[in-house]
Amino acid sequence: MNGIRPVRPSSDPSNPVVVVGAGAAGISCALSAAEAGARVVLLEKSAELGGTVSQALIHTLGGLFDDQGSLLNTGLPAELAERLGQACSYTKQRRIGKTWVLDVDPAKYANVITDWVATTPNIDIVFHASVTKLSIHAGQIGQITISSNGNFDSVQPAAVVDATGDANVVRLVDAERVANGVALGGVILQFRGVATDALRFPNGVALLMDIRKAAETHQLPPECLTLWLDTGVYPDEAYAKFNVTPEQYDAASMQTAAARLLAFLQTKPAFGQAFINAQGRLGIRDGGRIKGEYCLTEADIKSGKQFTDRACRACWPIEHWHPGKGLSLEYLPAGSTYDIPLRSLKVAGFTNLWAAGKCLSAEPRAQASARVVGTCWAMGEAVGKYLGGNLQ
Amino acid sequence: MDIHDALRSYIINEAFKGTVPEGFDDDYDLIESGAMDSLFMMNLITYLGQQHQVEFGMNDMVPKNFKSINALSEFSRNKLASAQ
After folding, report:
1. Cα distance from B19 to chain A (closest Cα, Å)?
2. Can you tell me the distance from the alpha carbon of A325 to that of A323, in angstroms, rounded to the nearest whole number?
3. How far apart are CA B72 and CA A369, in angstroms?
Protein backbone atom coordinates (compact mmCIF):
# COMPACT_ATOMS: atom_id res chain seq x y z
CA MET A 1 0.00 0.00 0.00
CA ASN A 2 1.90 3.01 -1.27
CA GLY A 3 2.13 5.97 1.01
CA ILE A 4 1.24 4.17 4.21
CA ARG A 5 4.07 4.29 6.65
CA PRO A 6 4.78 1.60 9.20
CA VAL A 7 3.66 2.44 12.68
CA ARG A 8 6.24 3.69 15.13
CA PRO A 9 4.06 4.35 18.14
CA SER A 10 6.85 4.84 20.64
CA SER A 11 9.08 7.08 18.49
CA ASP A 12 6.81 10.13 18.54
CA PRO A 13 6.68 12.19 21.71
CA SER A 14 3.04 13.27 21.30
CA ASN A 15 0.34 10.90 22.41
CA PRO A 16 -1.75 9.77 19.47
CA VAL A 17 -5.45 9.37 18.99
CA VAL A 18 -5.84 5.63 18.59
CA VAL A 19 -8.71 4.70 16.27
CA VAL A 20 -9.66 1.03 16.29
CA GLY A 21 -11.37 -0.17 13.12
CA ALA A 22 -10.87 1.13 9.58
CA GLY A 23 -14.47 1.06 8.43
CA ALA A 24 -16.59 4.11 7.64
CA ALA A 25 -16.49 5.69 11.11
CA GLY A 26 -12.87 4.78 11.79
CA ILE A 27 -11.58 6.16 8.50
CA SER A 28 -13.43 9.43 8.83
CA CYS A 29 -12.39 9.77 12.46
CA ALA A 30 -8.74 9.20 11.53
CA LEU A 31 -8.92 11.67 8.63
CA SER A 32 -10.59 14.43 10.62
CA ALA A 33 -8.37 14.03 13.69
CA ALA A 34 -5.28 14.09 11.48
CA GLU A 35 -6.54 17.10 9.54
CA ALA A 36 -7.11 18.85 12.87
CA GLY A 37 -3.46 18.26 13.69
CA ALA A 38 -3.52 15.16 15.87
CA ARG A 39 -1.21 12.23 15.39
CA VAL A 40 -3.35 9.19 14.63
CA VAL A 41 -2.70 5.49 14.95
CA LEU A 42 -5.32 3.54 13.01
CA LEU A 43 -5.66 -0.14 13.91
CA GLU A 44 -7.34 -2.53 11.49
CA LYS A 45 -7.91 -6.22 12.14
CA SER A 46 -7.80 -7.21 8.46
CA ALA A 47 -5.27 -6.42 5.74
CA GLU A 48 -7.28 -3.67 4.08
CA LEU A 49 -9.20 -0.49 4.70
CA GLY A 50 -12.92 -0.08 4.15
CA GLY A 51 -14.66 -2.29 6.68
CA THR A 52 -18.19 -3.40 5.97
CA VAL A 53 -18.58 -1.45 2.72
CA SER A 54 -15.68 -3.06 0.91
CA GLN A 55 -15.61 -6.42 2.69
CA ALA A 56 -19.35 -7.11 2.98
CA LEU A 57 -20.02 -5.50 -0.44
CA ILE A 58 -22.31 -2.63 0.50
CA HIS A 59 -23.11 -0.93 -2.79
CA THR A 60 -25.79 1.50 -1.61
CA LEU A 61 -24.54 4.13 0.82
CA GLY A 62 -27.39 5.42 2.95
CA GLY A 63 -27.30 8.39 5.30
CA LEU A 64 -25.59 10.84 2.96
CA PHE A 65 -28.77 12.59 1.79
CA ASP A 66 -32.03 13.90 3.22
CA ASP A 67 -35.40 12.90 1.78
CA GLN A 68 -35.10 15.58 -0.90
CA GLY A 69 -31.76 14.23 -2.08
CA SER A 70 -29.66 17.04 -0.59
CA LEU A 71 -26.52 16.34 1.40
CA LEU A 72 -27.28 15.95 5.11
CA ASN A 73 -23.82 16.80 6.39
CA THR A 74 -21.04 18.82 4.85
CA GLY A 75 -17.40 17.92 5.45
CA LEU A 76 -16.03 14.43 4.94
CA PRO A 77 -19.29 12.65 3.95
CA ALA A 78 -19.77 15.23 1.19
CA GLU A 79 -16.13 14.92 0.15
CA LEU A 80 -16.51 11.14 0.09
CA ALA A 81 -19.45 11.40 -2.31
CA GLU A 82 -17.45 13.75 -4.51
CA ARG A 83 -14.36 11.52 -4.54
CA LEU A 84 -16.44 8.43 -5.32
CA GLY A 85 -18.05 10.27 -8.23
CA GLN A 86 -14.66 11.28 -9.58
CA ALA A 87 -13.28 7.75 -9.23
CA CYS A 88 -16.07 5.97 -11.07
CA SER A 89 -18.50 7.38 -13.62
CA TYR A 90 -21.07 4.77 -12.60
CA THR A 91 -21.34 6.21 -9.08
CA LYS A 92 -24.80 7.70 -8.90
CA GLN A 93 -27.35 9.09 -6.52
CA ARG A 94 -30.53 7.00 -6.56
CA ARG A 95 -33.90 7.27 -4.97
CA ILE A 96 -35.22 4.18 -3.18
CA GLY A 97 -38.73 4.64 -1.82
CA LYS A 98 -38.61 7.84 0.21
CA THR A 99 -34.85 7.76 0.67
CA TRP A 100 -31.78 8.57 -1.38
CA VAL A 101 -28.62 6.49 -1.58
CA LEU A 102 -25.32 6.70 -3.39
CA ASP A 103 -24.71 3.64 -5.55
CA VAL A 104 -21.04 2.72 -5.48
CA ASP A 105 -18.71 -0.07 -6.52
CA PRO A 106 -17.37 -1.44 -3.19
CA ALA A 107 -13.96 -2.09 -4.78
CA LYS A 108 -13.73 1.51 -6.01
CA TYR A 109 -14.74 2.69 -2.54
CA ALA A 110 -11.81 0.75 -1.07
CA ASN A 111 -9.44 2.33 -3.58
CA VAL A 112 -10.73 5.83 -2.90
CA ILE A 113 -10.36 5.67 0.86
CA THR A 114 -7.01 3.91 0.67
CA ASP A 115 -5.61 6.70 -1.50
CA TRP A 116 -7.26 9.31 0.71
CA VAL A 117 -5.71 7.98 3.90
CA ALA A 118 -2.34 7.45 2.23
CA THR A 119 -2.17 11.09 1.19
CA THR A 120 -3.23 12.45 4.59
CA PRO A 121 -0.28 13.18 6.89
CA ASN A 122 -0.10 12.03 10.49
CA ILE A 123 -1.93 8.70 10.13
CA ASP A 124 -0.02 5.51 10.95
CA ILE A 125 -1.84 2.30 10.12
CA VAL A 126 -1.34 -1.08 11.71
CA PHE A 127 -2.95 -3.97 9.85
CA HIS A 128 -3.85 -7.32 11.39
CA ALA A 129 -4.05 -5.41 14.62
CA SER A 130 -6.09 -5.79 17.75
CA VAL A 131 -6.08 -4.22 21.17
CA THR A 132 -5.22 -6.88 23.72
CA LYS A 133 -4.96 -4.89 26.91
CA LEU A 134 -5.80 -1.48 28.31
CA SER A 135 -4.70 0.06 31.55
CA ILE A 136 -7.24 2.31 33.21
CA HIS A 137 -6.72 4.84 35.92
CA ALA A 138 -9.40 7.18 37.27
CA GLY A 139 -11.61 6.80 34.22
CA GLN A 140 -8.80 7.32 31.77
CA ILE A 141 -7.21 4.89 29.34
CA GLY A 142 -3.54 5.18 30.24
CA GLN A 143 -1.86 2.65 28.02
CA ILE A 144 -2.97 0.14 25.43
CA THR A 145 -1.24 -2.96 24.18
CA ILE A 146 -1.54 -3.68 20.47
CA SER A 147 -1.00 -7.07 18.88
CA SER A 148 -0.15 -7.37 15.20
CA ASN A 149 1.23 -10.43 13.43
CA GLY A 150 2.51 -11.86 16.68
CA ASN A 151 4.24 -8.65 17.73
CA PHE A 152 3.16 -6.54 20.66
CA ASP A 153 3.56 -2.84 21.13
CA SER A 154 2.37 -0.37 23.73
CA VAL A 155 0.95 3.08 23.14
CA GLN A 156 -0.01 5.79 25.54
CA PRO A 157 -3.03 7.32 23.81
CA ALA A 158 -4.45 10.78 24.12
CA ALA A 159 -7.78 9.18 23.36
CA VAL A 160 -9.12 5.86 22.09
CA VAL A 161 -11.98 5.64 19.59
CA ASP A 162 -13.79 2.33 19.27
CA ALA A 163 -14.89 2.16 15.64
CA THR A 164 -14.90 -1.61 15.50
CA GLY A 165 -18.63 -1.80 14.84
CA ASP A 166 -18.85 -4.41 17.58
CA ALA A 167 -17.72 -2.23 20.49
CA ASN A 168 -14.84 -4.66 20.98
CA VAL A 169 -12.57 -2.15 22.70
CA VAL A 170 -15.24 -1.06 25.14
CA ARG A 171 -16.03 -4.72 25.84
CA LEU A 172 -12.39 -5.20 26.75
CA VAL A 173 -12.62 -2.30 29.16
CA ASP A 174 -15.90 -3.41 30.69
CA ALA A 175 -18.37 -5.77 29.02
CA GLU A 176 -21.12 -4.25 31.15
CA ARG A 177 -20.79 -1.04 29.19
CA VAL A 178 -21.98 -2.69 25.97
CA ALA A 179 -25.55 -3.66 25.10
CA ASN A 180 -25.55 -6.69 22.85
CA GLY A 181 -26.75 -6.41 19.26
CA VAL A 182 -30.27 -7.31 18.21
CA ALA A 183 -30.36 -7.41 14.44
CA LEU A 184 -29.90 -9.85 11.60
CA GLY A 185 -26.63 -9.74 9.70
CA GLY A 186 -26.29 -9.82 5.93
CA VAL A 187 -24.31 -11.79 3.37
CA ILE A 188 -24.21 -10.19 -0.05
CA LEU A 189 -23.59 -11.75 -3.45
CA GLN A 190 -22.48 -9.63 -6.36
CA PHE A 191 -23.70 -10.93 -9.72
CA ARG A 192 -22.44 -9.88 -13.12
CA GLY A 193 -23.65 -10.94 -16.56
CA VAL A 194 -27.21 -9.89 -15.74
CA ALA A 195 -29.46 -8.37 -18.41
CA THR A 196 -29.80 -4.59 -18.18
CA ASP A 197 -32.82 -3.48 -16.12
CA ALA A 198 -33.49 -7.04 -14.94
CA LEU A 199 -34.25 -5.74 -11.46
CA ARG A 200 -35.50 -2.29 -12.29
CA PHE A 201 -38.52 -1.47 -10.13
CA PRO A 202 -40.85 -3.32 -10.03
CA ASN A 203 -39.19 -6.21 -11.93
CA GLY A 204 -37.11 -7.05 -8.89
CA VAL A 205 -40.20 -7.44 -6.73
CA ALA A 206 -41.67 -9.95 -9.15
CA LEU A 207 -38.49 -12.01 -9.09
CA LEU A 208 -38.26 -11.74 -5.34
CA MET A 209 -41.80 -13.06 -4.95
CA ASP A 210 -40.86 -15.92 -7.27
CA ILE A 211 -37.78 -16.73 -5.19
CA ARG A 212 -39.74 -16.70 -1.94
CA LYS A 213 -42.38 -18.95 -3.40
CA ALA A 214 -39.64 -21.35 -4.48
CA ALA A 215 -38.17 -21.27 -0.98
CA GLU A 216 -41.58 -21.97 0.55
CA THR A 217 -41.93 -25.04 -1.67
CA HIS A 218 -38.34 -26.15 -0.91
CA GLN A 219 -37.08 -25.60 -4.44
CA LEU A 220 -34.68 -23.16 -2.84
CA PRO A 221 -33.08 -23.37 0.61
CA PRO A 222 -34.68 -21.63 3.59
CA GLU A 223 -32.01 -18.90 3.49
CA CYS A 224 -33.88 -17.56 0.44
CA LEU A 225 -37.09 -16.89 2.38
CA THR A 226 -35.77 -13.52 3.51
CA LEU A 227 -33.53 -12.82 0.52
CA TRP A 228 -33.39 -9.30 -0.89
CA LEU A 229 -32.42 -8.23 -4.41
CA ASP A 230 -31.15 -4.96 -5.77
CA THR A 231 -29.84 -3.46 -8.94
CA GLY A 232 -26.11 -2.99 -9.22
CA VAL A 233 -23.87 -0.10 -10.10
CA TYR A 234 -22.95 -1.38 -13.54
CA PRO A 235 -25.61 -2.20 -16.15
CA ASP A 236 -24.94 -5.96 -15.98
CA GLU A 237 -24.67 -6.11 -12.20
CA ALA A 238 -27.11 -7.22 -9.49
CA TYR A 239 -26.89 -7.91 -5.78
CA ALA A 240 -28.59 -10.50 -3.59
CA LYS A 241 -28.58 -10.21 0.15
CA PHE A 242 -29.11 -13.11 2.55
CA ASN A 243 -30.19 -12.17 6.04
CA VAL A 244 -28.87 -14.38 8.78
CA THR A 245 -28.63 -14.59 12.53
CA PRO A 246 -24.95 -13.83 13.18
CA GLU A 247 -24.65 -16.48 15.90
CA GLN A 248 -25.99 -19.14 13.53
CA TYR A 249 -24.01 -18.10 10.46
CA ASP A 250 -22.40 -21.03 8.69
CA ALA A 251 -20.14 -20.24 5.75
CA ALA A 252 -20.48 -23.68 4.17
CA SER A 253 -24.27 -23.70 4.10
CA MET A 254 -24.21 -20.14 2.77
CA GLN A 255 -22.00 -21.32 -0.12
CA THR A 256 -24.54 -24.02 -0.89
CA ALA A 257 -27.44 -21.57 -0.73
CA ALA A 258 -25.59 -19.17 -3.03
CA ALA A 259 -24.94 -21.91 -5.59
CA ARG A 260 -28.58 -23.03 -5.55
CA LEU A 261 -29.78 -19.46 -5.89
CA LEU A 262 -27.53 -18.91 -8.89
CA ALA A 263 -28.80 -22.09 -10.54
CA PHE A 264 -32.39 -20.96 -9.96
CA LEU A 265 -31.72 -17.48 -11.32
CA GLN A 266 -29.99 -18.88 -14.39
CA THR A 267 -33.31 -20.41 -15.44
CA LYS A 268 -34.65 -16.86 -15.88
CA PRO A 269 -33.90 -15.21 -19.23
CA ALA A 270 -32.42 -12.09 -17.62
CA PHE A 271 -30.00 -14.20 -15.57
CA GLY A 272 -29.10 -16.82 -18.18
CA GLN A 273 -25.51 -15.55 -18.39
CA ALA A 274 -25.20 -14.47 -14.75
CA PHE A 275 -22.36 -15.51 -12.49
CA ILE A 276 -21.31 -14.73 -8.94
CA ASN A 277 -18.51 -12.20 -9.20
CA ALA A 278 -17.92 -11.78 -5.48
CA GLN A 279 -19.33 -12.85 -2.13
CA GLY A 280 -19.03 -10.56 0.85
CA ARG A 281 -18.16 -11.56 4.36
CA LEU A 282 -20.89 -11.54 6.98
CA GLY A 283 -21.96 -7.94 7.54
CA ILE A 284 -23.02 -7.10 11.08
CA ARG A 285 -25.75 -4.50 11.42
CA ASP A 286 -25.72 -4.31 15.21
CA GLY A 287 -22.69 -5.85 16.88
CA GLY A 288 -23.36 -4.11 20.19
CA ARG A 289 -23.91 -0.55 21.36
CA ILE A 290 -21.90 1.28 23.99
CA LYS A 291 -23.43 2.82 27.06
CA GLY A 292 -22.56 6.44 26.48
CA GLU A 293 -23.13 9.67 28.29
CA TYR A 294 -26.38 9.87 26.35
CA CYS A 295 -28.46 7.07 24.82
CA LEU A 296 -30.14 8.10 21.57
CA THR A 297 -33.76 6.94 21.68
CA GLU A 298 -36.36 5.95 19.12
CA ALA A 299 -38.46 8.86 20.39
CA ASP A 300 -35.55 11.24 19.72
CA ILE A 301 -35.24 10.26 16.11
CA LYS A 302 -38.99 10.21 15.46
CA SER A 303 -39.40 13.68 16.95
CA GLY A 304 -36.42 15.13 15.05
CA LYS A 305 -34.67 16.01 18.28
CA GLN A 306 -31.87 18.55 18.17
CA PHE A 307 -28.97 18.72 20.61
CA THR A 308 -26.61 21.54 21.49
CA ASP A 309 -23.68 19.09 21.23
CA ARG A 310 -24.69 17.91 17.79
CA ALA A 311 -22.17 15.60 16.15
CA CYS A 312 -24.13 15.28 12.93
CA ARG A 313 -27.56 15.07 11.34
CA ALA A 314 -29.34 11.93 10.24
CA CYS A 315 -32.69 10.88 8.80
CA TRP A 316 -32.44 7.32 7.52
CA PRO A 317 -35.65 5.35 8.23
CA ILE A 318 -35.75 2.86 11.05
CA GLU A 319 -34.55 -0.11 9.03
CA HIS A 320 -34.69 -2.83 11.62
CA TRP A 321 -33.74 -6.37 10.67
CA HIS A 322 -35.30 -8.01 13.68
CA PRO A 323 -34.02 -11.56 14.30
CA GLY A 324 -37.56 -12.90 14.77
CA LYS A 325 -39.80 -10.56 12.80
CA GLY A 326 -37.60 -9.83 9.79
CA LEU A 327 -37.32 -6.45 8.09
CA SER A 328 -39.49 -3.53 9.09
CA LEU A 329 -39.00 -0.12 7.57
CA GLU A 330 -40.41 2.94 9.25
CA TYR A 331 -39.83 6.27 7.57
CA LEU A 332 -39.34 9.37 9.68
CA PRO A 333 -41.81 12.23 9.09
CA ALA A 334 -41.33 13.97 5.73
CA GLY A 335 -38.59 16.58 5.86
CA SER A 336 -37.50 15.51 9.33
CA THR A 337 -33.90 15.09 10.46
CA TYR A 338 -32.50 14.43 13.91
CA ASP A 339 -29.22 15.11 15.64
CA ILE A 340 -26.78 12.60 17.04
CA PRO A 341 -25.19 14.20 20.09
CA LEU A 342 -21.48 13.88 20.82
CA ARG A 343 -22.42 12.49 24.24
CA SER A 344 -23.83 9.36 22.58
CA LEU A 345 -20.33 8.77 21.18
CA LYS A 346 -18.51 9.13 24.49
CA VAL A 347 -18.34 6.15 26.80
CA ALA A 348 -19.90 6.98 30.16
CA GLY A 349 -17.45 7.22 33.02
CA PHE A 350 -14.34 7.74 30.87
CA THR A 351 -12.50 10.88 29.95
CA ASN A 352 -10.79 9.64 26.79
CA LEU A 353 -12.76 6.66 25.52
CA TRP A 354 -15.08 7.20 22.57
CA ALA A 355 -17.05 5.19 20.06
CA ALA A 356 -18.13 6.09 16.55
CA GLY A 357 -20.30 4.38 13.99
CA LYS A 358 -22.60 1.41 14.47
CA CYS A 359 -21.69 0.95 18.13
CA LEU A 360 -22.92 4.38 19.24
CA SER A 361 -24.99 4.63 22.38
CA ALA A 362 -28.53 4.13 21.17
CA GLU A 363 -31.66 2.06 21.56
CA PRO A 364 -31.83 -0.81 19.05
CA ARG A 365 -34.40 0.90 16.81
CA ALA A 366 -32.54 4.20 16.98
CA GLN A 367 -29.36 2.39 15.98
CA ALA A 368 -31.32 0.81 13.12
CA SER A 369 -31.56 4.32 11.66
CA ALA A 370 -28.20 5.75 12.72
CA ARG A 371 -25.99 2.84 11.66
CA VAL A 372 -25.86 3.55 7.91
CA VAL A 373 -22.62 4.40 6.14
CA GLY A 374 -23.09 8.11 5.53
CA THR A 375 -24.07 8.67 9.15
CA CYS A 376 -21.10 6.61 10.34
CA TRP A 377 -18.82 8.87 8.28
CA ALA A 378 -20.40 11.92 9.88
CA MET A 379 -20.12 10.49 13.40
CA GLY A 380 -16.48 9.57 12.88
CA GLU A 381 -15.67 13.01 11.53
CA ALA A 382 -17.29 14.70 14.53
CA VAL A 383 -15.32 12.66 17.05
CA GLY A 384 -12.06 13.10 15.16
CA LYS A 385 -12.58 16.83 14.80
CA TYR A 386 -13.42 17.17 18.49
CA LEU A 387 -10.39 15.19 19.58
CA GLY A 388 -8.05 16.86 17.10
CA GLY A 389 -9.21 20.29 18.17
CA ASN A 390 -9.01 19.58 21.88
CA LEU A 391 -5.57 18.01 21.78
CA GLN A 392 -3.91 21.08 20.29
CA MET B 1 -65.65 -3.70 3.18
CA ASP B 2 -65.32 -2.97 -0.54
CA ILE B 3 -61.84 -3.72 -1.89
CA HIS B 4 -61.36 -0.08 -2.81
CA ASP B 5 -62.04 1.03 0.76
CA ALA B 6 -59.92 -1.80 2.15
CA LEU B 7 -57.01 -0.81 -0.05
CA ARG B 8 -57.40 2.83 0.85
CA SER B 9 -57.40 2.00 4.55
CA TYR B 10 -54.41 -0.36 4.23
CA ILE B 11 -52.31 2.15 2.29
CA ILE B 12 -53.12 5.06 4.59
CA ASN B 13 -52.30 3.03 7.68
CA GLU B 14 -49.27 1.10 6.44
CA ALA B 15 -47.59 3.49 4.01
CA PHE B 16 -48.46 6.77 5.73
CA LYS B 17 -49.01 5.63 9.33
CA GLY B 18 -52.44 7.29 9.28
CA THR B 19 -51.23 10.75 8.26
CA VAL B 20 -51.57 11.37 4.57
CA PRO B 21 -49.59 14.06 2.75
CA GLU B 22 -51.17 17.19 1.35
CA GLY B 23 -53.01 16.58 -1.89
CA PHE B 24 -53.57 12.91 -1.15
CA ASP B 25 -56.50 11.31 -2.94
CA ASP B 26 -57.30 8.05 -4.71
CA ASP B 27 -55.21 9.09 -7.72
CA TYR B 28 -52.22 10.13 -5.61
CA ASP B 29 -49.08 8.78 -7.28
CA LEU B 30 -47.76 6.17 -4.86
CA ILE B 31 -44.69 5.36 -6.94
CA GLU B 32 -43.59 8.92 -7.63
CA SER B 33 -44.05 9.84 -3.97
CA GLY B 34 -41.82 6.97 -2.87
CA ALA B 35 -44.55 5.34 -0.77
CA MET B 36 -44.60 2.28 -3.04
CA ASP B 37 -41.10 0.99 -2.36
CA SER B 38 -40.16 -2.64 -2.90
CA LEU B 39 -40.85 -3.69 0.66
CA PHE B 40 -44.26 -2.05 0.79
CA MET B 41 -45.14 -3.51 -2.58
CA MET B 42 -44.31 -7.01 -1.36
CA ASN B 43 -46.33 -6.52 1.81
CA LEU B 44 -49.25 -5.17 -0.22
CA ILE B 45 -49.19 -8.16 -2.56
CA THR B 46 -49.15 -10.51 0.42
CA TYR B 47 -52.04 -8.59 2.02
CA LEU B 48 -54.16 -8.68 -1.13
CA GLY B 49 -53.50 -12.38 -1.60
CA GLN B 50 -54.22 -13.39 1.99
CA GLN B 51 -57.10 -11.05 2.81
CA HIS B 52 -58.80 -10.60 -0.56
CA GLN B 53 -57.65 -13.58 -2.65
CA VAL B 54 -56.15 -11.29 -5.30
CA GLU B 55 -53.29 -13.26 -6.82
CA PHE B 56 -50.58 -11.47 -8.76
CA GLY B 57 -48.92 -13.17 -11.71
CA MET B 58 -45.47 -12.27 -12.97
CA ASN B 59 -46.96 -10.18 -15.79
CA ASP B 60 -49.04 -8.19 -13.33
CA MET B 61 -45.96 -6.64 -11.70
CA VAL B 62 -45.98 -3.47 -13.74
CA PRO B 63 -45.99 0.12 -12.48
CA LYS B 64 -49.43 0.98 -13.85
CA ASN B 65 -51.10 -1.56 -11.53
CA PHE B 66 -49.47 -0.03 -8.44
CA LYS B 67 -49.56 3.64 -9.33
CA SER B 68 -52.52 4.71 -7.16
CA ILE B 69 -55.37 3.48 -5.02
CA ASN B 70 -57.68 3.68 -8.02
CA ALA B 71 -55.26 1.72 -10.20
CA LEU B 72 -54.86 -0.97 -7.56
CA SER B 73 -58.63 -1.16 -7.03
CA GLU B 74 -59.30 -1.53 -10.72
CA PHE B 75 -56.64 -4.19 -11.10
CA SER B 76 -57.94 -6.10 -8.07
CA ARG B 77 -61.55 -5.98 -9.21
CA ASN B 78 -60.61 -7.22 -12.68
CA LYS B 79 -58.55 -10.02 -11.16
CA LEU B 80 -61.36 -11.12 -8.91
CA ALA B 81 -63.89 -10.94 -11.76
CA SER B 82 -61.72 -13.03 -14.09
CA ALA B 83 -61.17 -15.62 -11.35
CA GLN B 84 -64.89 -16.27 -10.98
Report:
1. 10
2. 6
3. 31
Q: Tell me which residue range forms the domain holding B50.
A: 3-83
Q: What gap in Å lies between CA A204 and CA A150, rounded to an integer?
A: 47
* Shortest Cα distance, chain B CAs vs residue A44, angstroms: 35
Query: Are the Cβ atoms of A98 and B34 closer than 8 angstroms?
Result: yes
A10: number of Cβ within 10 Å: 10
Q: Count structural domains, chain B.
A: 1
Counting as low any pLDDT under 50, the low residues of chain A are: 1-11
Summarize pLDDT for B10-67 with one digit per residue, the tens.
999 999 888 888 889 999 999 999 899 888 999 999 999 999 999 988 889 899 999 9
Q: What are phi and psi of A349, to 5 degrees?
A: 90, 0
Tell me if residue A62 falls in helix, strand or coil: coil
CATH of the domain at B45: 1.10.1200.10
Do the beta carbons of residue A57 and residue A110 sit within 8 Å?
Answer: no
The question of ipTM being above 0.90 is answered as no
pLDDT of residue A392: 56
Cα nearest neighbour of B62 on chain A = A202
Question: Using CA atoms, how far apart are residues A311 and A330, in angstroms rounded to an integer?
Answer: 23
